[in-house]
Amino acid sequence: MTAPAAKMRVNGEVRKVKRANLGAGLSGMLGVAVVALTFASQPLAAKAGTQAGSQAGTQAGTQAGTQAGPVDLTKQAKPAPVVAPTATPTAAPAASPTVSPTAAPVEAPTPVPAPHWTQSDAQGLLAMIKGIGAEGLFPRDYQPEALSAAILKGEGPELDETATRLFTWLAEDLRDGRTPMTARVQWFAVDPDQDVHPTSLILADALARHDVKGALMALLPTVPDYAALKAALPKAQTQKQAALIRANMDRWRWLARDLGTQYLLANVPEQVLRLTVRNKIISTYKVIVGKPGKTATPQLAETVEGVIFNPTWTVPQSIVVGEGLGARLVNNPRQAEREGYKVTKAGDGTIYVVQQPGDNNSLGRMKLDMPNEHAIFLHDTPNRNLFNLPARALSHGCVRVERATELAMTMAILGAGMTPDDAVAAHTSKVYTKVPMTKTFPVYLTYFTVARDVNGMLRSFPDIYNRDAPVLATFAQPRQLHTTQRKSNEEVIKLDNPL
Question: Catalytic positions, please?
Answer without folding.
Answer: 379, 398
